[in-house]
Sequence to fold (373 residues):
Amino acid sequence: MTVLFDAEVPVHYGFIWLSSVEDLPELMETRAGQRNGLCGAAFPGVLSMVTGLHTGRVPFVVQWHDTAPDLDTSWEEVVEVPFTAQQRELSLSSFQDWFDVTLPAAGSLRARFCANRMDEAHGQDTLMDEATIDRYLLALWPADPAPDEIVRQTSAIAAYWHREAQTVRLPSAEERAAEARARAEQERREHEQMLAEYEKRQWGGRRPSPRLRELGGNVLAVAQAHRDMLDAFEALDPDTQRAAARWLARRAFEIAELDRVDWARPALDALDQGLPLPEPFTDHESVFPLLYADATDATVSVEWRVTGFDDNAPHRPELPIHRPSFAVPAIFAATDPDPLQALVETFSHAEATFHDRSEELLADLRQRLWPAG
Fold:
């Protein structure tokens, strides 16, 4: 015989585990289908053992035997169960306390759980610094699987747990499969609901139509700030969407004073006629250097407007806004092949160009597109 563990174990709620798994099952699940209720072995790799004491310390010994040991008649409660040790390294645990137990060998074992003075400890319920009452022994040895057995029973609390175990039924394979399908379906619905709620927050409070969902660029920013207007944009016919995008690009150029610049005006005329944008608007890289070069006849020099932040955050520094830098992307956006994408993107850039005067742009746009509203 080899002693694998011999110490006082702190218990809480009257149970001790010996296991090789991280996720322990429900206590009653480990006893389902058994005759005895003191040592549950219905869950692979787990033994759940009941103590008479609810909270306190109990002496606990784990022994290893090469063959079945003789029965010690001094024990008042004795049960035996089959136990398959999936590995040699096990944990003896009770609530938040864990102790290592190393078996000489893994595999199919027989476990004999013995107890004394369970009724007295159960009546005491809780021990703090007093001497211990009930004590326990777990003997293990290699053996083929065999049904669990109540070898000796003398206490009322042991009889109670034996009766409880015999009322617990293991679900059938079909029932377990049905439960697994139900859990998976519930998880799927919850996941879909979570995604739907997240999408609603992304899109300004309600989920988008398939048409809006396929748009890129700044559509989410527009949805969060102007969801009603975004829906109204979608409801417009393509010709009106295209016309509105061109008008917004022109308004952005006007407030940025780019409409006064010789090299910029032809781009607005080409946009209105549906023609390709002329030089230097053939690409972004050709335009932006002109906005920041030293002032010459071929450049635009516009004063940097200084605008503030929210009055509720006066500690934040003021930053300048250079309106032409926001206006130029508007004219490129207005040429997008998709009329709705063109309108959404151009609106986004035009509003940024107006910045502190954005309400002026919004009022003009509503009057132009929806005069009756």
